[in-house]
Specification:
Length: 230
């Protein structure tokens, strides 16, 4: 009986810690400008493609890689829920990255959303990406990141990065405000992201390198409060 009580206490404590972490993630995202508090409950903004059963293509590949990174963390975690253990067993530890949003990707998405304390719809919207960003970025104290060629062009160039995704959200808001081409949030510093970065740098008088260095982040931070979400 005592062992059962202890187990229940541990499970509840773990759940509370996860909930606190999820709330902290959203707060971090708001702090960094990845999401405006007034729009935090919206499922989609702008023209970000929505992924779900039947979707296919490069963006699905990027999301599958995000899910695999999450599954990798589960494998090494000392506290894994029964549902997550079942997912790990079902996928033999990892999803097949094939760019097809099939039943396996849907199930993994639902599991990820459940762990992130967001509606477990199995559908990926901009809100889903922003939740992921909030769980991986560090607010303020560490300063702004500096994207180099290691991220933009290298063996990890197709590996989704939460800081890149945050920059894409900021670029997307700025681009839409100026009637420019939207930036798809995928965590990958691709050619579209680089081109949008050049446009922003030119608009604020910076050298148009296409790389989001700290000076570029600082300019975006100053402009952020003047931008309105669509």
């Amino acid at each position: 009986m005592l062992a059962t009580v202890r187990t229940v206490i541990r499970v509840r404590a773990s759940g509370l810690q996860a909930l606190a972490a999820a709330i902290a993630c959203l707060c971090v995202a708001c702090c960094l400008g990845a999401v405006d508090p007034a729009f935090a409950g919206r499922s989609d903004l702008g023209s970000q493609p929505i992924l779900g059963p039947g979707s296919h293509g490069r963006l699905v590949v990027d999301w599958q890689r995000v899910l695999n990174a999450w599954l990798d963390q589960l494998r090494t975690s000392s506290a894994v829920s029964r549902g997550d253990r079942q997912l790990l067993t079902k996928f033999h530890g990892r999803l097949r990255v094939d760019g097809v949003f099939g039943s396996a990707t849907e199930a993994a998405t639902i599991g990820w959303q459940h762990d992130a304390y967001v509606p477990a719809s199995g559908v990926v919207t901009l809100r889903t990406w922003i939740t992921w960003i909030g769980s991986h970025v560090t607010c303020c104290g560490a300063g702004y990141p500096d994207f180099t060629a290691v991220i933009a062009d290298g063996k990890n160039s197709r590996t989704p990065n939460a800081y890149v995704a945050w920059w894409q959200v900021a670029l997307g808001r700025w681009s839409q405000q100026h009637g420019l081409r939207a930036v798809t949030v995928n965590g990958v510093y691709d050619s579209v992201t680089g081109a949008a970065t050049v446009r922003f740098q030119r608009s604020v008088g910076l050298k148009p390198t296409g790389m989001a260095n700290k000076g570029t982040w600082t300019k975006m931070a100053k402009a952020r409060n003047a931008l309105a979400l669509p």
